[in-house]
Design brief:
By secondary structure, the chain is mainly beta. The protein has one domain. Helices cover 14% and strands 42% of the residues. Strand 3 and strand 4 form a beta hairpin.
Length: 152
């Protein structure tokens, strides 16, 4: 008699539990950083700062962070769930980097893109931030690749 009352409750409670794969994150990001600068290319040297990896722990609306230990950089980004999935990317330098690290094209502190393609290519620079409509030409650190997959 008691099992007839408890069994429907257990079935409903089990159906309401989130699936286990929901804890893995909403989307995955594969990343690579090519720290080879133009001066390296001209001299025929490849950089030891090249790194790559994947993270599957990113959730929509929350900041996701990648640590590039060889380059002493922290890349963080947020993806907003929408029709086109807008991503905002930030880059910060560690202790080995100067105070003027890190910027995107034109001395911007952040890069905002729509994910019309799954692969983003972003140049990272060291130098100074742009003030108003000032023209800034900073020193290139390398090229950051971010590939987004499993977007829902």
């Amino acid at each position: 008699m008691l099992s007839r009352l408890v069994l429907p409750f257990l079935i409903v409670a089990t159906c309401l539990l989130p699936p286990l794969d929901a804890f893995a994150g909403d989307y995955a990001v594969s990343y690579a950083f090519d720290g080879t600068t133009r001066a390296d290319v001209a001299s025929g040297v490849t950089s030891a700062l090249n790194e790559e990896g994947t993270t599957k722990e990113c959730e929509y609306g929350r900041r996701c962070t990648i640590k590039l230990t060889k380059s002493d950089l922290t890349i963080s980004f947020t993806v907003e769930r929408s029709v086109y999935h807008e991503v905002v990317v930030f880059a910060d330098g560690g202790r080995s980097r100067s105070v003027g690290c890190c910027y995107f094209f034109g001395g911007d502190r952040m890069a905002k893109k729509m994910l019309s393609e799954p692969l983003l290519r972003l140049w990272l620079y060291e130098g100074q931030a742009r003030k108003r409509n000032e023209y800034v030409e900073n020193i290139p650190l390398g090229l950051l690749y971010l590939q987004f997959s499993d977007l829902k």
